[in-house]
Hints:
It is a single chain. This protein is an all-beta fold. It has a single domain (about 10-80), classed as CATH 2.40.50.140. The protein is built from no helices and 5 strands.
Amino acid sequence: MENKKAKIILAKVFSNKMDKSATVIVERQIKHPVNGKFIKRTSKFHIHDENNECVIGQQVRIQQTRPISKTKFWTLVKED
């Protein structure tokens, strides 16, 4: 299932109330164009969690994959 071109990113589990799915948050820092300070930006993704292994607050690695449903384009690779 490992694809060399697929993106793999580190995320934090936000919600695990769905069956075989979870919601994760990815944080990144961008530099403000005017004053140069770094600002935190977050993105939420729905991931496919086949065995319902995710726990809220846990750091996980997710991999981009084919569309699984209307909102799920990421799958769980491993837990850290």
